[in-house]
Amino acid sequence: xxxxxxxxxxxxxxxxxxxxxxxxxxxxxxxxxxxxxxxxxxxxxxxxxxxxxxxxxxxxxxxxxxxxxxxxxxxxxxxxxxxxxxxxxxxxxxxxxxxxxxxxxxxxxxxxxxxxxxxxxxxxxxxxxxxxxxxxxxxxxxxxxxxxxxxxxxxxxxxxxxxxxxxx
Length: 168
Ligand SMILES: CC(C)(COP(=O)(O)OP(=O)(O)OC[C@H]1O[C@@H](n2cnc3c(N)ncnc32)[C@H](O)[C@@H]1OP(=O)(O)O)[C@@H](O)C(=O)NCCC(=O)NCCS
What we know:
The model has no long low-confidence stretch (mean pLDDT 95). This protein has a single domain (2-119), classed as Gcn5-related N-acetyltransferase (GNAT) (Aminopeptidase), CATH 3.40.630. It starts with a strand and ends with a strand. The radius of gyration is 15 Å and the shape is globular. The chain has an eight-stranded mixed β-sheet with strand order 1-2-3-4-5-6-8-7, with helices on both faces. By secondary structure, it is an alpha+beta fold. It has five helices and eight strands, in the order ββαααβββαβαββ. It binds coenzyme A. Coenzyme A (COA) is lined by residues 30, 33, 89-91, 96-102, 125, 129-132, 134-135, 138.
């Protein structure tokens, strides 16, 4: 469990989160930002949670006053190079623009560098997701490259931006 502040905490996802996650991740304004070809179902979520248990990934539910409001994850952890990807970052639209995303990402950066002892964190975003790009750059991430036509999303190919942050 990660305490972000007095009201926000991150706890590990469990099978019982499936209804919340299916509703959240299949929302139009959210799924359009992620390169996923098929909608999430209860079965695919349970399979995902099972795989997660055998992996070294972290997948947290963001809670505000103990109510689930979003998700965030650290994965592709590579201790040969002390780097990891983070993502699966979603906050329910009802709770957006209240500074929660900033606080959560700040906590994830701190956790990655100071608890997991990583040297570098990186993530991806589509070029049109200006909210995400603004937020990531506000916390120090810089664009390291643009992968051309890297993903198929919303029925067309799209560039994919990679952003990185190195521990100071
Ligand atoms: C990205 C996301 C998690 C941000 O969460 P949030 O709680 O709204 O973020 P914050 O309230 O802390 O806002 C952080 C910054 O984002 C930017 N931002 C937020 N809303 C914005 C908007 N409508 N337009 C432009 N920038 C915006 C601003 O830089 C803001 O900082 P500021 O308020 O100091 O100007 C949320 O918008 C979300 O879930 N989006 C859908 C899923 C998604 O796109 N995930 C990322 C995939 S790469």
